[in-house]
Amino acid sequence: MPQGEYLGMTLTVLDLDNENLAYFQHCAEHDFHLQRCVDPECDLLRYPPGTACPWCSGREFNWVPVDARGTVHSYGEVHHAIQPAFRERAPYMILLVELDTQAGEPTEHEALRVAGNLVDADGNFAGPDLVKQVGIGSRMRMVFADVAEGLSLPHWTLDEEAEQPEAPWRYPQEVNGV
Amino acid sequence: MTDIDTTADKYLRDKYAIIGVGETTYTRGSGMTTRALGTWAIKNAMDDAGIPASEIDGMMSYSGNDSTASPMLAGDLGIRLNFYMDVQGGGSSSEALIGLAIGAIEAGMCETVVVFRSMNGFSQVRIGGTGARASVPVGGDALHAAAYGWFSAGQSFSPTFMRHMYDYGTTPEQVAMVKVIHSEHASNNPKAYYKQRVTVEDVVNSRMICKPLHLLDCCVETDNATALIVTSVDKAYDYRNTPARILGVAGRVCKPRIDMHFQHGPISTVAGHYIKDIIYRNAGVGPEDIQCTGAYDAFTFTSMLQLEDYGFCEKGEGGDYVSSGIMRLGGERPNNTSGGHLCEGYTHGMNMIIENVRQLRGEVDCYCPQDDNGKRIHSYNYAPPEEGGGCRQVPDLEITQNLGWAMPGTGSSLIMRKG
After folding, report:
1. From A152, which residue of chain B is nearest by alpha-carbon distance?
2. Element spanning B364, H or E
3. Element of type H or E holding B273
4. Among A70, A115, B221, B256, which residue's beta carbon has the most beta carbons within 10 A?
5. Does residue B266 have a cis bond before it (omega within 30 degrees)?
6. Do the domain assignments include residue A177?
């Protein structure tokens, strides 16, 4: 049973939680995978891991590698942390990153929007200067935080190879310089 | 859906009513159990209706394992139950359970149902997720949220609120007006936990909690219980007060895939987008007929997003709507005349239903002088009490609507008329 301490929290994936076990195992190998529906007429990816296909109700799927790059669709920026270990990391960003893969499918408003915190290229929580650079429209790539054997969490960092928007959209009011 | 005959008996429009409402004080540190709080609120609702325990035979409640179950309270109060049901849930449960109570009565399972919510939301299980709740182990689906410090309601909803600002140019100052207006209403409400009127500057200069939410964009955490009594119209007039008749209800209507609702956009659209097609059909009225709203205000943004998606204004114009003065007492369609969750107290939508029941009776509590029977002689002067105002009764009120919120992807609604 993958289990580890992470930022003061005990994270656990139960042995019978097959979908999350596989998802986090791929993350532990730093090789992002999602479930793809096996029905050839559907063939859609889904996130987060689930027990059936949200578009055709099919229960059969394969894990397939997915290019983990995308654009910030929206975010929250936490200044008053609630969980104790996050307090020293505030302000921290909760990013909702829309993957390039399957964006706008199966309808124009749908996409794979993968959550994560903003971290630097080494996987450390972003400091205030980096937080200030990221907003809606920022181009991101995935990095992983290793928690335990078989359990790593996906996070997001600025994609150095991508063309970044001149000024990503950010909430208009700054607090303590962020 | 337009070819459905909603006057058919199955729609139950206007056939049920709320005959009694009651609550405890809204405090921080009740010094009693949720069982004692619940008993207090239900007894107040019974006294309000003038109904004895022997004429109540159903009870329903909802909680997140932070309350006391119906059979305990029924036992304490001498109510023998033919039906009870306690469900998991928070916001949006109140309206949904009223609908289920109607269904239970209609099915012949019971005749008169108490719906209650009892919670020590400040002193025991803190709604904001602080205290003991912040340190619980994280597993299963929470690995995709709580592990990221994405945990409290404000944190969870913030991408929805932020995207609305991006999509439509909504400003912090516009949204702050929700708090400003609700604080004006609360200043005239003797029961409100926060009675202080605040300004837009107060809101946008208050401490940042989670962008785009300042401290004063967030509701208050309180200890309290609330209760109401539902029965059929053929019995409703046997009791003390003019019943509030139920025109329609919609319960826990969802956006697609709410466990991952951010996958289904636009994410700045909320469940009201779907609810409006059910509630207005069932009630036989439209938003233009609603004179007073109770739009759930866990946060300033939640009132705005719902009012917009129910069609009280065009999509994207919620910022203009909430900052226009329409929602003010004395405005075209007041919202949360008690001060709501932002100011009166937090009880998952029940207090806003109670408020609208009293509004429809013309009997909200305020600072107006009382006649010999203790009834308020309303001045309709909405200035603060110290300036000679202190009223919060809406005049000539016929139809109200409650807009219940669980999260961006789930909501409920209730439309009532004066009996």
Report:
1. B143
2. none
3. helix B272-283
4. A70
5. yes
6. no
